[in-house]
Amino acid sequence: MNKETFVTKEQLDKITQEYPTPFHLYDEKGIRKNVEALKEAFAWNPGYKEYFAVKATPNPFLIDILKEYGCGCDCSSYTELMLSDAVGIRGEDIMFSSNDTPEEDFQMADRLGAIINLDDITHIAYLEKAIGHIPETISCRYNPGGLFKISNDIMDNPGDAKYGMTTEQLSEAYKILKEKGAKEFGLHAFLASNTVTNEYYPMLAKVLFKQAVKLQQETGVHIKFINLSGGIGIPYHPDQEPNDIRMIGEGVRRVYEEVLVPAGMGDMAIYTELGRFMMGPYGCLVTKAIHEKHTHKEYIGVDACAVNLMRPAMYGAYHHITVMGKENQPHDHKYDITGSLCENNDKFAIDRMLPKIDIGDYLVIHDTGAHGFSMGYSYNGKLKSAELLLKEDGSVKLIRRAEKPKDYFATFDCFEIGKKLL
Ligand SMILES: Cc1ncc(COP(=O)(O)O)c(C=O)c1O
After folding, report:
1. Pocket residues for ligand 1 (CB within 6 Å)?
2. Any idea where the Orn/DAP/Arg decarboxylase 2 N-terminal domain is (predicted)?
3. Would you tell me how many other CB atoms lie within 10 Å of the CB of residue 184?
4. 32: helix, coil or strand?
5. 95 forms bridges with which residues in the sheet?
6. CA-CA distance, 403 to 85, in Å (whole number)?
7. 148-196: per-residue pLDDT in tens?
8. Residues 6 or more apart from 264 whose CB is under 8 A from it?
């Protein structure tokens, strides 16, 4: 089955004259259309807000587009907070959802006025010591344990996840926070990742809404928002049915009417912290075939590697590949598509049926817009690629330059060798 690319071969031929492969390319039109649909889907909730998960695609130019639609930032670290600040997203437009959090990060979040989402009950004392007070608005992350199932399908295993507080800890945490002066509360959970079903958010909402009613009754606190976090997935495989965000929004609305409204909690704001759903399909990794190797298998070596996109090596994740200009040719060659790392898992595809690939062909690796570039590392001295934005008018803007050797050596400034190399 085929998957359409958002860029044509003609456009790529032009782009690569100025910017050599590999690079990540993002689709402004797609990003805008998608965030509009998300906002419409939750328009029934007056307090609704999407806090874009910065970790998915930490690029200020892309976050700036989302900012136009009123999105905030979900940050998990000091530098992500700096990035949000640089884009002008501050105060309660930042959700600080971190775990195993260093003191400096809490201090930075507090300086920016972010909403702090505590991962553990012990973080109450740690936070108080770090910033000298407990903020008036505060959130807690919930982990009910066990398996998260939809019908008989196991979606994920929260009981095995390091995140969040148990049911008992959550109630205790709210009481302690209230005693220490907190006035407005949030409740957060992330129970399944990359869900390609319209049922995940409504099911999660039911768990959280019921828990919120219980907590409000038990502790007497005012719960201001429920944060459904991330987890809405995308169809990486061409034969997967994409999520319908309108149905998801409507599903959450129905549960809201069923659980919260009768409990007198109809003033609840719904927040989301989506990453993959916001950017995943609107980014691709463009790479060029530079070698072919015929040994025990047929290999095509490309000029990108797992440093540019780690998901296949890390999780065996599927990313669809289009050989540009050969979309309609028979997929009658079986290839492993490899990068150049000295790691045998550095393969973008294994035993993939593709058209015959020739040296110089451009390969578009789909759905790299989230958790793609951002997961990269620097093994084998590999440098990170550029990021480009394909604008609505068809022009291209450089939104992050490619790393140069001097970037790789920059942290050796304490050694003489560093000076020589720079
Ligand atoms: C706390 C938190 N929020 C949101 C997200 C975004 O998740 P997704 O990209 O699946 O929407 C993540 C992803 O790891 C996360 O850890």
Report:
1. 53, 56, 74, 97, 190, 193-194, 229-231, 273-277, 370
2. 31-279
3. 16
4. helix
5. 74, 115
6. 23
7. 888 778 888 999 999 999 999 999 999 999 999 999 999 999 999 999 9
8. none
